[in-house]
């Protein structure tokens, strides 16, 4: 038998063997890592879920002994469906950029953030809740609007309920007066 042929065959066997061994080693390592990945993924999802849930304090405001109207407004606020122009504009096919606040001259779209934190019409009521917030929530003035909202839900949902009711009723009266003028 040809010795060269046997040598090549022998070499090929070891090449194949080492490839298969490397693949097996990789798979074994990978299998070994699966529980680690699953556990990490679980913790990441759980952490994010907990962050969102506690940030908005869903349970807090739902269990509070406040009037139903305030609770309903807080729920609408929480789910982003408060009937401000950014929402009502949808029903009349208004472009989003045209859904401007008609209660001030800012030229801003009337969305939840504008309504709660920027519209001049509610400045007096806003000042009152800000005074309380500065005493309860750390570094209040440095927080972004979205963090302010999350903190109000978490730490001051009762005061937030009253604030939203006051300014929403003020808005409604203003709107009604504009329509009847
Ligand atoms: Zn405004």
Jot down its keywords.
8 helices; 181 residues; binds zinc ion; single chain; 0% strand; 74% helix; mainly alpha
Note down, in words, how this protein is organized.
The protein has helices at residues 3-56, 58-63, 68-78, 85-91, 112-118, 123-136, 145-155, 157-180. With 181 residues, the protein is mainly α. It has two domains: 1-52; 60-180, no CATH class. Helix 3 (68-78) packs across helix 8 (157-180) and helix 7 packs across helix 8 (157-180). The relative contact order is 0.10. Bound molecules: zinc ion. Zinc ion (ZN) binds next to loops.
Give a quick rundown of the structure.
The protein is mainly α and 181 residues long. The protein has eight helices and no strands.
The description of the largest β-sheet is:
none
Strand content: under 5%
Q: First CA to last CA: what distance?
A: 111 Å
N-to-C series of helices and strands: HHHHHHHH
What characteristic shape results from the CA principal axes?
A: elongated
Low-pLDDT ranges: none
* Helix fraction by DSSP (H/I, runs of at least 4): over 70%
Please give the radius of gyration in angstroms. 30 Å
Number of continuous helical runs: 8
Give the arrangement of secondary structure elements:
Layout: H1 3-56, H2 58-63, H3 68-78, H4 85-91, H5 112-118, H6 123-136, H7 145-155, H8 157-180
Helix pairs in contact: 3-8, 7-8
Zinc ion binds at residues 101, 103-104, 106, 114, 119, 121.
């Amino acid at each position: 038998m040809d010795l060269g042929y046997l040598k090549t065959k022998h070499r090929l066997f070891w090449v194949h063997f080492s490839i298969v061994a490397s693949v097996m080693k990789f798979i074994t390592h990978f299998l070994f890592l699966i529980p680690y990945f699953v556990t990490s993924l679980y913790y990441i999802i759980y952490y994010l879920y907990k962050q969102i849930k506690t940030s908005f304090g869903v349970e807090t405001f739902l269990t509070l002994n406040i009037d139903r109207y305030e609770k309903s407004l807080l729920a609408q606020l929480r789910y982003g469906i408060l009937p401000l122009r950014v929402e009502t504009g949808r029903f009349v096919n208004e472009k989003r950029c045209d859904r401007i606040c008609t209660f001030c001259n800012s030229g801003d779209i009337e969305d939840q953030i504008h309504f709660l934190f920027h519209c001049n019409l509610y400045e007096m009521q806003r000042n009152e809740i800000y005074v309380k917030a500065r005493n309860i929530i750390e570094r209040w003035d440095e927080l972004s609007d979205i963090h302010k909202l999350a903190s109000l839900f978490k730490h001051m949902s009762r005061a937030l309920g009253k604030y939203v009711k006051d300014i929403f009723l003020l808005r409604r009266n203003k709107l009604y007066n504009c329509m009847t003028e």
